Amino acid sequence: MKKFRKVLDGLTTSSPAGVGGSSSCASAAGTPTAGPSPREIDVAETLTSESFQICKTVRHGFPCQPTALAFDPVQKLLAIGSRSGGVRILGRPGVDCYCQHESGAAVLQLQFLINEGALVTACADDTLHLWNLRQKRPAILHSLKFNRERITFCHLPFQSKWLYVGTERGNTHIANIESFILSGYVIMWNKAIELATKTHPGPVVHLSDSPKDEGKLLIGFESGTVVMWDLRAKKADFRIHYDEAIHSVSWHHEGKQFMCSHSDGSLTVWNLRNTARPVQVTFPHGKTQRDGRKESCKPILKVEYKMSRNSSEPFVIFSGGLSYDKASRRPTLTIMHGKAITVLEMDHPIVEFMVLCDTPYPNEVQEPYAAVVLLEKDLVVVDLTQSNFPIFENPYPMDIHESPVTCTAYFADCPPDIIPVLYSIGAKHKKTGYSHKEWPVSGGTWTLGSQTYPEIILTGHADGTIKFWDATAMTLQMLYKLKTSKVFEKPKAVEGGRGAELGEEDPYAVQMLSWCPHSRLLCVVGISANLILYRFSKHDANTNITVLEVRLQCEVEEVISPSDTENTPCLSDPSGHSPQPPPSPRSNTPDSARDSIPCLKVKDRTIRMPPGYQAELVVQLLWVDGEPPQPITSLDINSAYGLLALGNCNGLAVVDYIQRTVLLCMSTLELYGAADPFQRLTRSPRKSRQSTPDFCMRGLSNFYSDSKKRIRTFYLFHLCSNTCKIIDLKKKTSTPASMKYNQLNFGPLVHQIPYLSFCILWKYNFFFLSIFLCPSFTCSGARPLTPSIVLCPSCPAESRENSFSRSRSSSVSSIDRDTKEAVTALQFGESYGRKTDALPTPCLWVGTSLGLVLLIPMSIPTDDQERQEEPVTMAPTGTVLMLKGSVLRFGFLDLRGAVISAPYEVWRDPNAQEDPERPRKRKLVNFSPSSSQENCGEGHLAVVCSERQAVVFLMPAQVCLHVHNITEASFVLRADLVSFCNSVCLACFCANGHVMTLSLPSLRPLLDVNYLPLTDMRIARTFCFTNGGQALYLSSPTEIQRITYSQEMCDNLQDLLGELFTPIETPEAQNRGFLKGFFGGNTQTFDREELFGEAAAGKASRSLAQHIPGQAGMEGMKAAAGGAVGELARARIALDERGQRLGELEERTALLMTSAETFSKHAHEWYLGGSGFEPATF
């Protein structure tokens, strides 16, 4: 009994026996015993630990929770900051770089050093960072941490090395970009405002230098005060006080006036000649009411004031400003050009926008050509050169999150023809109406790497859509989109109907995907316990969808009430495998009305299906006696066999999709027969259940054999307001009801009871903590502990993006033994169903949540005609293998260590015209274990991975050759057999964030890296490996992160990524003309170094800010000489020298002009005889 319990709970460490045997592989009801191999298995393993290194490669998708936006008009690069401290830098397609601040603080503002290959980020932890973009992997060169003040706004003038930093206290500091040291020059708020002002002006919300004079700095305070500060004179030129708070300021390029946006939805224009009052006040969206007052409007958060050469009318572009009575309207971007006002409605709130202009010089005609609008969940670029303002087609995969991603699949080294075919089909359904101009963000360079192969990513979504993505060469482009909801009728929202029973927000949500790139078969499992089989066709078709209904429900033992007179809630067995909320409270409709019906209704009419993936078959699990079908937890399809298998916590079903029949539908217990290692008893028929006024909870039970006798105990729970009551039904006594749920301490109980597990259920907005323990267990000689149920008030439920989508039977340990044993893994393949088999036959490997593996051999007709007519036979053989933890993955190797792929059928178009004289035949590709071996009777190796361990069996002897306990403190979430460096290995991802690889077949640990210490449910749901040493997961609700665990790919990663910085000459400033240059403003130069340098301004206080070197320390600072800062210094020196030469040339030109004018004057006087000579006459 002790040995049996050790196998059952899966908590003990296996001890090798023989050739790596383990107690977990012990014999039980026909299971093989661990022992030496019948023959020496000698496989040359080429993989070593030096072959592996894990690193991130590229991130796709829209930045989650964006906060800031910046654009380099010369390099044509776009930067987006996020709340999590991430920075995405985008250029032309293929140029996509992700940077992350180690602090994780939100990015408040971004500033490009235009055409210098550097970026300044201001974060919420009051730190400035300088990033070097002249390398494919940007790195921080310097950081400046403010200690006493909070950063609110930054401004970096074009071609300047001095950064203006505004703070929450209203002060303005100046930092040197090259050294990242604060200057002693500080503009204090009390000096900027008038001395008579008694109130604080508020934080600095705007900083900009005058386009007319760089020595004048415009400072905007939140309260409505605007100050023009003379940097040379160190005093204010003028001060403006406005009643409404200021959100943004924008200059006219001539520097004579500027525009402010305010909190009351107004725009004010101020002229520098008269700052007493604004020259213009407008409410763009505020109508005049009957009493003459303007209706109240929302704040205008930002305004851009630009001019175009082709029009004398300015472009005024702003966000917000709508009247409050239009609350139902979506967020808008307003474009005012002359008398025309265009309002563009957005699908999501506007975070930030920028107007892209041709010139980087602020004192030139801006010539706006596009507006980049950063939304909370999208990026939109508007074409300003056309009157209807169309948007550009976004080349980046920014719509991954169009509907929440529920599952992913990653396929590397696909057939080369699949991507062009999918693209040609998907291109027919693309949206139209985009701008015909090229995408304006075109910076950087990217070339196709030498080592590229077709890669495809599939994403399933909550609305039932499936997207195919081309992931070749570190890029991501959508190929094709499929909507599974078109297969079903729209559910009728009838009160008390089945739709209400399901309680599903997304009844079409995709839960699982199985795709064969070779046969182009696609199997989709939905959250409503349905499975859809799709075939690919290049032609449209009018077909009827075949529906197979499967009654896969496990009978539950009759409920034993503590008293026949008590009306206690009936308890059922929670599966613990379903990610969706359980059914809502029942209505008054009798249970018989909910028997043998599916959750969704398939369209029963002829449907026209366009080219692409076309639905052929739908398998639906049915309601049974008022109980909804349990979600499907495992799936496999094989095109060569023409079979698909699905399983859940009730049992297994096998479908022949060629003959459209159900071959097998059995509960898991029935699959064992007499070979059940736990010797469980047959379930009794279901009795009619009692109902309660509020809701009927199904019970929590567990199997534990004590002298082959089942002990069942049920419990009653009562809900008191914010209290929990523990009731012992055997004694009918309870603990005081006044004990709060947060006062319960299960810590000592967990340490004292080894056979204890927990199961969390979400139901009726409450969390139920179910405690299972062995009824026969006693603690320190005390009386046997009686199990109980604790009901706790609910905590906020996790979002859909942060919950498991696949089943897990054991969240703490594999002892979570409830009455339903789930089918967690399925695999078709050529194998040996019995020890006595001499040749491999088609088999189905079945893994369960109790760590058991069953083999089901099949007899499939080989002839095409017989396959259409003769039935497929299959029956369990009683072969049972045992592991610790829920079974996750199967894989097969030949005796040389090569992967044995599953056989498949070569794709053929089902709707193509056939030649009646030459009927088409199925072309099968079979990978039999004997195909690569001389002796067909040698057998093969079976690799089985569970949540706890990996085991290699020799078939058909069923001998355990190798076993490795992967983890004891955690559990494996994902495991895959992957081809890697002309070899194969087992890759695992654990719940504690560890990524591991094991050699095959010896199961030697090759890699164990704590890659994601703080993993979450989203990552657990979407993490998947693929061949070539790559993997991916959903790093945020909107982004896919791709990683590699290959040392070779890490070494060649620089060649695969795009270059951010490209050497481009800065455009020349426009010639202002003689008259405009002579009469138009100040011509004296402004040397910031003389004002802000240490010699003139001194040093700032050390306690004000702390300089932090880059990640590489002093090496990074030395490397900066050859990077952005060094290049910036050299460029500045070259610019100064060039400017000096231009100045000297201008002076020489002026002298020549003066000499020429003097000579011309004297020559003219001489000609008129002014020299005493008279003109000659003829």
Helix and strand topology:
Layout: H1 2-9, E1 52-61, E2 66-72, E3 77-82, E4 86-90, E5 96-100, E6 107-113, E7 118-123, E8 127-132, E9 139-146, E10 151-155, E11 162-167, E12 172-176, E13 181-187, H2 189-192, E14 204-209, E15 216-221, E16 225-230, E17 235-241, E18 246-251, E19 257-262, E20 267-271, E21 280-282, E22 300-308, E23 311-320, E24 332-337, E25 340-345, E26 350-357, E27 368-375, E28 379-383, E29 405-412, H3 418-427, E30 455-461, E31 465-470, E32 477-483, H4 498-502, E33 510-516, E34 521-526, E35 530-537, E36 541-543, E37 546-550, E38 607-609, E39 612-621, E40 634-638, E41 643-647, E42 651-656, E43 661-667, H5 668-672, E44 719-720, E45 723-724, E46 727-728, E47 733-734, H6 747-752, E48 756-763, E49 766-773, E50 789-793, E51 823-831, E52 841-848, E53 852-859, H7 864-869, E54 873-874, E55 880-882, E56 887-893, E57 904-905, E58 924-925, E59 940-946, E60 949-955, E61 959-965, E62 972-980, E63 983-990, E64 994-999, E65 1005-1010, H8 1017-1022, E66 1024-1026, E67 1030-1036, E68 1039-1046, H9 1047-1051, H10 1053-1056, H11 1074-1079, H12 1088-1092, ...
Parallel strand pairs: 37-39
Antiparallel strand pairs: 1-68, 2-3, 3-4, 4-5, 6-7, 7-8, 8-9, 9-69, 10-11, 11-12, 12-13, 14-15, 15-16, 16-17, 18-19, 19-20, 20-21, 22-23, 23-24, 24-25, 26-27, 27-28, 29-30, 30-31, 31-32, 33-34, 34-35, 35-39, 36-38, 40-41, 41-42, 42-43, 44-45, 46-47, 48-49, 49-50, 51-52, 52-53, 53-54, 53-55, ...
